[in-house]
Amino acid sequence: MTGNEAVAEGAIQAGCQFYAAYPITPQNELIAYMAKHMPARSGQLNRVFIQAESELAAINMVFGASAAGKRAMTSSSSPGMSLKQEGISYIAGAELPAVIVNMMRGGPGLGNIAPAQSDYFQATRGGGHGDYHSIVLAPSSVEEAYNLMFLAFNLADKYRNPVIVLGDGTLGQMMEPLKKVRNPESKIQNYKKPWALTGCKGRKPNVIKSFYMKEGALEEFNLKLQKKYKEIEENEQRWEESFLDDAEIILVAYGTMARVCRDVVDNLREKGKKIGLVRPISLWPFPKKVFHRFTGKADQRKRFLVVEMSYGQMVDDVRLSCCGKAKVEFIGHSGGGIPTGEEIIRKINEKNI
Amino acid sequence: MREKIIIAGAGGHGIMLLGKILAQGALREGREVTWLPAYGAEVRGGSAYCMVIISDRKIGSPYVEKADTLIAMNGLSLSRFKPRLKENGLLLFNSSLVTGKVSAKARIMGLPFTGTALKLGNVKVANVVALGAFIAGKKVLDKKNILRVIKDMAPQGKKDLIEINRKALCAGIGLINDKS
Fold it and tell me: What number is the ipTM of this complex?
């Protein structure tokens, strides 16, 4: 199964009730899978699939479906994600759950269809206007793409917040066995949605809005959001680590790049090099906790090498998390190729870091 | 065991399908496997390639920088991907479509994939002839499992395709066995 199909299958099993999207390479297999399976496996969930007339329409349909209390999702790739930003900001402002998948491709502009990780800033910093954050999850295998869809829907409902699943063209296109072995975390958690617009006969009407004109009201609402974000930062940092106990060089990479780095780590470990790997799974909240371990005096010898399919985005978060206490190097490019294992090893040797 | 394969040819050669059958066959043997296509704006007659990795261990990058085996279905793809073959790797190329002398620091085998397919009566199975040559040349996969995959993949109502593909697979294996 391809990564795109695994995301779609994960979403369906995680109880996705509404999906609207507009096609774009390299995530077309996702929308195609949903077109086939959402109606066919509708069941009691009354699933709805819509191929929208545009990305804007799709995200606003998700806004509506979510306001009605449904598990709603859309997907796209980089240029399409830019179009969705207004909608995501509104969803965050209205405190609605939604799952948005971005299989990143080259940019800026229309760019190309090669894999890239250049939308890190857009995803983790908000992306649209206003002080908001989406929760961002980054799978690095087909299996994980499937499993993270459960988490994505659960976190969206739990915090009433948009969740972005951030993959890239490689993950979307590649095939790998999917055993559908669910993580213990991968089950549907049913959160009550007393806020949903379900018809107010016999109860007080619910209001869903992101518009606060009364003096002080918006500030008050923003403070409430910030409190929520703090709670998410405290509870939802996720990462995978290997060989951190004795590593002197620690590679940091997410998604597809983490796979390339894992090969490098295996390769150099065999040669006796003390090298380790941190793979952030949640990009927002960024897993600062793992880096805070290495800001003590004893850890001054550790060096971090961040590898991305971009010209340096996540590296900012690594530097911020290290608080200037550790040396952080960067290697990466985007727009055409994937940084190769050879390149990374060359960088490690040349810098003698 | 880790076998990295690049399969390349023209759009319409069944390059992606060849890779998928190979990957599914490996899956049947309980191996770890990845399949990664080049997904550019591919068109019939344009270039097409995919990368397959078969391994006993968890696979990191699905991207094949240096291949253990290159299967090239035409001259263009042969010259394009030859530099990405490991020294002493296995080079299987389609001698029906490649003219001129081929040199490389590799185990070179030029075999008439297209010619063999034509003899079988369906040019489209040239890819499965090549697959047969690969499994006979590398012996990393069992023929039985490949046949199983072909059976499962054949669409309903087109089960007659199974037999010609079985013949093509056997003919590909024969090409190698006759050579050695």
Answer: 0.87
Q: Per residue in A70-81, pLDDT tens?
A: 999 999 999 999
Pick from B27, B32, B35: which is nearest to A174 by CB?
Answer: B35
Measured between beta carbons, the chain A residues lying within 8 angstroms of B20 are 175
Q: Residue A142 is which amino acid?
A: V
Nearest to B35 among A175, A260, A262 (CB): A175
- In this prediction, residues A255-263 reach a mean pLDDT of 96
Domains and CATH numbers, chain A: 3-235 (3.40.50.970), 240-351 (3.40.50.920)
Q: Are strands B2-10 and B47-55 parallel, antiparallel or unpaired?
A: antiparallel
Give mean pLDDT in consecutive 10-residue pieces for chain B, a chain of 180 residues. Answer: 96 94 95 90 79 95 95 95 96 94 91 97 97 95 96 90 96 90
Q: Which residue carries 């089950």 as its tokens? A: A187
Domains contained in chain B, CATH given:
2-179 (3.40.920.10)
Which chain B residue has the Cα nearest residue A141? B60
Tokens 């930062």 — which residue? A233
Q: Say if residues A236 and A285 touch (Cβ distance below 8 Å).
A: yes
Q: Which residues of B touch A309 (CB under 8 A)?
A: none
Q: What angle do helix axes A3-13 and A142-159 make, rounded to 10 degrees?
A: 40
In single-letter form, the type of residue at position B124 comes to K
Q: Are A252 and A313 in contact (CB under 8 A)?
A: no
CA distance A342 to A347: 9
* Beta carbons within 8 Å of A140's beta carbon, 6+ residues apart: A171, A254, A255, A256, A258, A259, A279
Cβ-contact A91, A15 below 8 angstroms: no
Inspect the interface and report whether the beta carbons of B60 and A173 lie closer than 8 Å.
no
Q: Find the chain B residues whose C-beta atoms sit closer than 8 A to any C-beta of A.
A: 20, 23, 27, 32-37, 39-41, 58-63, 65
Degrees, nearest 5: CA angle A150-A10-A27: 120
Burial string for A63-87 (b: 16+ CB within 10 Å, else e) reads bebbbbbbbbbbbbbbbbbbbbbeb
Which phi and psi angles does A176 have, rounded to 5°?
Answer: -155, 155
Please enumerate residues of A whose Cβ is less than 8 A from a Cβ of B: 25-26, 113, 169-170, 173-177, 256, 259-264, 266, 338, 340-342
pLDDT at res. A352: 60
Q: Which residues make Cβ contacts (< 8 Å) with residue A333, sequence separation at least 6?
A: A309, A310, A311, A339
